[in-house]
Amino acid sequence: xxxxxxxxxLVACGGGSQKPATxxxxxxxxxEQCDDGxxxxxxxxGCNELCMFACADPGTDCDTxxxxxxxxxxxxxxCMIALDPTQEGLTCGMGLICRSGSCVSTMCGNGVIEPxxxxxxxxxxxxxxxxxxxxxxxxxxxTGCDDGDPCDGVETCVPVMDGAMSGQKCAPGTGEADxxxxxxxxxxxxxxxxxxxxxxxxxxxxxxxxDSNRADGDGCDNDCTFTCLSTxxxxxxxxxxxxxxxxxxxxxxxxxxxxxxxxxxxxxGTGDDYCKAGACTAPVCGNGIVEAGETCxxxxxxxxxxDGCSASCTFVxxxxxxxxxxxxxxxxxxxxxxxxxxxxxxxxxxxxxxxSGFVCEGGSCAAPGAVCGNGTVEPxxxxxxxAGNGAGTGCEFNCRFSCTSTPxxxxxxxxxxxxxxxxxxTVAGHTGQQCAAGTPESDGTACVGGRICLASACVTSTCGxxxxxxxxxxxxxxxxxxxxxxxxxxxVCGNGILQGSEQCDDGNTLNLDGCDASCNFEQVxxxxxxxVAFGNDGPTGxxxxxxxxxxxxxxxxxxxxxxxxxxxxxDGSITIIFDLLGLxxxxxxxxxxxxxxxxxxxxxxxMGYAGDxxxxxxxxxxxxxxxxxxxxxxxxxxxxxxxxxxxxTTQLAGSIAAKVLDSPGPGEFSITVNFVGVAVTxxxxxxxxxxxxxxxxxxxxxxxxxxxxHLTSEHVAPALQSFQTSSSGEVCGVTAAQSLANTLTPxxxxxxxxxxxxxxxxxxxxxxxxGCKALxxxxxxxxxxxDASRDGAVxxxxxxxxxxxxxCTRNGVADTLADCIANAGYSSLFKYTTDRIxxx
Length: 840
Hints:
single chain, mainly beta, three-stranded antiparallel sheet, 8 helices, 27% strand, rod-shaped
């Protein structure tokens, strides 16, 4: 500037050939500021060739000073360049700040507290250490430490020391005792506020009891009411079957002691029902057991010709005079020991005429003097085998044939052993007639009363009899084998029949429809609470870094973020589902190997049901929330998160031990959260997950074929139980910088909210790198650099004057911005609980 003034003056004076007459004479005249007796304007002498001060205004008389310095005039009116203390700590270039008059790289982390820094622990700077990597306190006050969960105590911001350096960090609070109320129907469990539910082990109104399981009869039933009460007639241990005997209730344990069974044969029920082994039993004729109202029961032989038990389970022959019909002349009927009718000689008729001049003799009707058994066929005799006469020989003891052809007297009434015929036989030269056996029917041939032939007997077909009776729906034998169920049906997953070791069978082999392709119950859980943690998890040591949440220090931002997430969970717009693949222990007690499939989805709405998730206003059809108590609700799976076999494309290896689900990682998956009104898909890498498994319960069955509950067509095993909830869940990992770069700044952080730093064209990564102060005063988001990466390198981003990230370094060396964003990340911690749902 002084040279410019000199040139102007020369032009004004005609090229510099003239000067004031008195300048340079060593005497200061009225129009002069100085006169040192020379006109050479010697630098540094304070008086120029025009007899004016060389430095009167440093802004115009001095050269422009270097960055971080300022020009001033000395008492001798010369220019002086010196340190400018007003610029200390201010930006002097991209990634540079003023330090002691020099423009240098930021020095946070050198262990020296410099202007603009609250603290500096050197290499100990970090999330939750007391001094963050930005050289600001880890917390400014206790409001920034509150994680929003009343059950884990009140977190406070406390002073800490690192050597001689002081800082501030969040200290955990004292957790509330389990079962402490933390909201309407909400209680504290393991220092987490969760919905109270039957089976959680804590008695909350209107429960009478809660024993952490859903089993009946153990003192506390699956609806959390006492198994018995002696004062309640409906629960005084009266057995369903009177034959079991009246039980008694122990009002201390609320369990029933069984009564003494009534004696076998005691009448019960209706008709001929009777007590048998403590159960009221209806007699069944034909089962081979003599029961009330029966005199005999020979099973399938009942009613056959040579059996002494009739088809109505009464003896065939008790009184031969009435039971056997009319005898032949000279004979009479008698009852055998097996209650069949038998022809015997009627000696009382000996000598009596029996027609045609014949007389009775020893049961034989023949000519007088004839001797049956002498080997000679005499008048009146049909045959005579002599000593060979006898029952079934062809010639009976009374010299009559053993059978007749018309009618066929050989048929024993058993169709299964073939049709017996009366055939001629010759014995010792004499002819007779003898019954010959028929040809037995093949096993399975139909016989009387819908029964079948087995081993030449007409029997009722039963599973396990060794014959596959297809007419009865059987297709295999023996039952209860690896391939044959207890009903003699081949075990086939997907046939809609619950068989063998199947846990369910819905008639197909699809996954994610309540019953998987192997007919195993699908243990699918949805996060019904989710929150960004704003600190690490303290003494548990599971997640010791949390740059993502730790950067959010303002109570306004913290509240807005987790309120938005809670609202998204409640209306179903945020749905994160875990599908436990390969789970063998449905109780969640111990399982050494499983996989956690991570999938997305949305709730299936249902009108007119009080438990809708989300519920709807019948007048508008609008969903009103919440969707946080959605046990067994149906969720439609996001097709982009599963493959062609409907299996989660993203899986984490895990295990369960002592009711704790653990996936130690490192894994990678994406979750969708809501950052101040903006849905953000967070890509998490180097991820690990854990949660505490809750109590088991019997899955709900849909009452009307709509959500919630399993359809009856799924044929879920009636005795099946699986764990209903999980709590104290944590997802610890690294959020990719790319996720933040892909997300535009929420409108709540634009404009004056962050000191007019951001427009909607900025990304969340811009906000994290440059920070946000509400109204330019209160820190809401601390400026935070990535603290992790995919490749182990250290990445640093630099923003321009518009607070847009425009460049970066990798391990201190400039790198392409795309590579930095793709590899850098922020350590993160999310906390969650889940409940069991049904994927569709």
